[in-house]
Amino acid sequence: MLSNSFNQILFSVRLRKIEIIIASFFCILAIKQPLSAQSSLDRRVDSVLALMTLEEKVGQMNQYTSSWDITGPMPKGSRDSLKFMLIKSGQVGSMLNVLSAKATREAQRMAVEESRLGIPMIFGYDVVHGFRTMFPIPLGEAASWDVDAIQKSARVAATEAAAAGQHWTFAPMMDITHDARWGRVMEGAGEDPYLGSLVAVARVRGFQGDDLSAPNTIAACAKHFAGYGFAEGGRDYNTVSIGDAFLHDIILPPFKAAADAGVATFMNSFNELDGIPATASNYLQRKILKGDWDYKGFVVSDWGTVAELITHGVAADEKEAARMASIAGCDMDMEGYSYVPYLTQLVKEGAVEEALIDDAVRRILRVKFMLGLFDDPYRYCDAEREKSTLYAQAHQDASRDVARKSVVLLKNEGNILPLKKNQGTIAVIGPLAADKDSPIGSWRANAVENSAVSLLEGIQAAAGKKTTVRYAQGVKLTAGPRNFLSEVIVNETDTSGFGEAVRIARGADVVVLALGEDCWQSGESRSRTHIDLPGLQAELLAAVRAVNPNIVLVLMNGRPIDLSAIEPQVQGLVEGWFLGSQTGNALADVLFGDFNPQGKLPVSFPRSLGQIPIAYNHKSTGRPTAGGNVFWSHYSDEKNDALFPFGFGLSYTTFSYSAMKLSSETLRMNETLKVSFTLTNTGKVTGTETAQLYTRDLVGSRTRPVKELKKFQKVTLKPGESRVVTLEIASDDLAFFTARGLREAEPGDFEVMIGPDSRNIAAKQGFKLVR
Ligand code: NOJ
User: Fold this and answer.
1) Cα–Cα distances in Å, from 102 out to 105, 375, 384?
2) How far away, in angstroms, is 522 Cα from ligand 1 center?
3) Least CB-packed of 79, 266, 429, 637 within 10 Å?
4) Which residues are CB-contacts of 331 (< 8 A; sequence separation ≥ 6)?
5) Residue 524 CB–ligand 1 contact under 6 Å
6) Weakest mean pLDDT among 98-102, 330-334, 359-363, 726-730
7) Can you tell me the distance from the alpha carbon of 606 to that of 589, in angstroms, rounded to the nearest whole number?
8) Residue 223 CB–ligand 1 contact under 6 Å
9) Quick one: which atom of ligand 1 is closest to the CA of 171?
């Protein structure tokens, strides 16, 4: 049975010799240990490993990019022809950025039919928020707090990617961050480890499905392990200095949840942690991940991070870098060019144990087996399926569904929203209003440029016949090339479009103004030191407002924007992120009230840049409140709290929270406490509220956050309808990294709070955790 499936890849053309080797290997194995002691998967893995030379094993640990798409700096000598030779000599276990069923089939053919053992390659790609059909950027999608919709989005992305030859996505990114300057805030689920964990698991499940070997599922990758979201100054790739408790309580929970959910792979990170680059970190990779968590998948380096141990200054040369990374538990070298040239020699010299190489290769082969690549290495290379799958209507529908759930209504003064469909004249103004490209976002995988439905198109399609829709760009956002590799140059000078914008604003009943960032201003290596609206957009707003104050500002952006100066100037404020292919339709659904907004911020929007880093779950400090003089923890020129707090988002209806009850005043270890309350829709339309539950541990062996999200529930209620919501807290939900260096819950007094967001607490009660 085992040798049967493996024989398929040997393609009878070759190697009667190897069949004999496999047969004798099984005899040896049977003598050495009872077969029942090993899982069938492990036996299949070992049957392949036993055939491999040391060079071939090291080859499995090697990953190259194709030059067809570049997602990082290109090392010298990375021409495809050279790589093709290496594939044929069994030196390439994986490639990234090989796109399309046709291209992957050809590359796979070289590995399977022309290398000695014919071990299939695994093809990876950054399928971050969609493949051809784009979904909201992950930060936006997290604002839906809808784990089913998020799972569905990843499911669609996997279906499309798998149809185009991909086996493996480098997603989900689950880096928590408190820093809006960091460009990759757009790629995660925001600032909270609990929400982040649920979103991470939903995405892993969506990508991987129930069966990794199905032709429409792909392996996921938990990245970046770990701490990458806390780069100093928010500058990408920068140093990270955080304590162990912070690492365990804030950064690791989504990774642990993903590991528990069976994520197939991990990626380490560019940053150092306490002086040790993550790629060389035994503590992260061997102790925590493969030791404490008993993780069985493999760890891929981030792009070039093995060789970057030299520029970090912990390795003198590539050989030392290869030694350090492999010993530390980095199983695959992505575009680092360090494992293939040096690992074999390092093993022969006794500097790296062969057992470590075997362990890495076993992990990699196991994932290849799980994907079914040994049964059919071309399973994912079906050009017909690719054609019929990409951009399918059902995928567009799924995208629109989660996109509108991701929209967050931040302000609705005088109920300017929803807009009436027969409003008179709507002036749609702004650099992002007719933009069909930025809404796709910056991790756009295989998306077609300019393929999103623009806001203008969405409004035009939804507005009634009696409504006149006028458009003016007003101002350009950028003044130069826009792409993955170039720096964005912001337009700081050209105001030539202001006149037309003012003219149409003057004659309109309402202005829908679309401002924000170009999508290439967030994402990898897109850090900013200013997080207000770039370029001349604030000036455009002022000019428009001077003639028409009825303004609904629709934001498109990949990070929290400093809205302090902007918010007072508009009546309606809608956070529209980059919502993907169906952006305009999703936004129009919300603006015209066909869909009642329900998104809640997964990240705090600061009042000013100087508040960063900021998160709702901060500590108390020794001086949290004013005591009659200046000596307390505050700014002398700004409030401490966010402009829009974590969890915040309005609806076209209103909700009330009442009758909070606890099932008991005490919670025993390993038991649960029920927290119930009545939620009522007190407004005039059906709406969905995300009711949130926070706790505070009043006294701990280490200081505890002032609030921590522990549970939430989305509840849809008709006008006047009430429902009793019951949320459960288990004692384990209260665990943290205690002064004993263990994750455990400590007995003592707690507060439990419920409410619509992290600032507006509707009710709270105390309880005691007891042994
Ligand atoms: C570098 C990024 O940090 C990582 O997230 C991505 O998967 C790789 N490049 C491959 O493109």
Assistant:
1) 5, 19, 10
2) 14
3) 637
4) 61, 298, 299, 300, 359, 360, 361, 363, 364
5) yes
6) 98-102
7) 28
8) yes
9) 7
Closest by alpha carbon to 687, among 662, 710, 721?
A: 721
Q: At residue 277, what are phi and psi to the nearest 5 degrees?
A: -60, 140
Average per-residue pLDDT in the chain?
94
Q: Are 616 and 585 in contact (CB under 8 A)?
A: no
The b-or-e profile of 715-724 (16+ CB within 10 A means b, else e) is bebeeeeebe
3-state secondary structure 753-771: EEECCCCCCCEEEEEEEEC
Name the residue among 591, 585, 598, 553 with its Cα closest to residue 419.
591
For a ligand 1 pocket test, name from 300, 302, 526 the mutation site with the most ligand atoms within 8 angstroms of its C-beta: 302
**3-class DSSP state of 458:** helix
Tokens of 186: 């757009």
pLDDT of residue 11 exceeding 60, the answer is no
pLDDT of residue 423: 76
Return the SS3 of 151.
helix
Angle at 107 between CA 101 and CA 112, to 5 degrees: 110
Selection from 497, 507, 503, 498 nearest residue 426 by Cα? 507
List of residues 6+ apart from 468 with CB closer than 8 A: 424, 425, 426
pLDDT at 75: 57
Least confident range of 82-86, 456-460, 501-505? 82-86
d(CA 158, CA 291): 30
pLDDT of residue 329: 98
- Checking if the pLDDT of 388 tops 90, the result is yes
Q: Look at residues 236, 249, 239, 235 and name the one whose alpha carbon lies nearest to residue 278.
A: 239
Q: Does the Cβ of 71 fall within 6 Å of ligand 1?
A: yes
Pairwise CA distance, residues 67 & 420, whole Å: 51
From edge to edge, which strands make up the β-sheet containing 666-668? 666-668, 763-770, 748-755, 687-697, 708-717
pLDDT at 74 over 70: no
Q: Quickly state the pLDDT bin for 37 (edges 50, 70, 90).
A: very low
- Prior bond to 634 cis, omega within 30? no
Confidence band for 85, pLDDT divided at 50, 70 and 90: confident
d(CA 214, CA 591): 40
Our answer on whether the CB atom of 262 is closer than 6 Å to any ligand 1 atom is no
Give dist(CA 204, CA 183) in Å, integer. 23
- Which residues are the active-site residues? 302
Ligand 1 site, residue 719, Cβ cutoff 6 A: no
Token pair listed for 497: 């479009």
d(CA 33, CA 29): 6
- SS3 of 332, please? strand
pLDDT class for 245, splitting at 50, 70, 90?
very high
247 Cα to the center of ligand 1, angstroms: 22
* Pairing assessment for the beta strands 468-472 and 425-429 based on DSSP bridges: parallel
How many angstroms is it from 97 CA to the middle of ligand 1? 11
Ligand 1 atom nearest to CA at 269 = 3
Residue 599 has phi, psi (to 5 degrees) of -70, 150
d(CA 206, CA 214) in angstroms, rounded, equals: 13
Q: Measured from the CB, is residue 205 less than 6 Å from ligand 1?
A: no
Determine which residue's CA is closest to atom 11 belonging to ligand 1.
71
User: Residue 194 is inside which H or E element, if any?
Assistant: helix 193-208
pLDDT at 82 (0 to 100): 75
Q: What average pLDDT does this structure show over 322-343?
A: 97
Give the integer Cα–Cα distance in Å for 633 and 610: 14
**Any atom of ligand 1 within 6 Å of the Cβ of 335:** no
pLDDT confidence of residue 72: 63
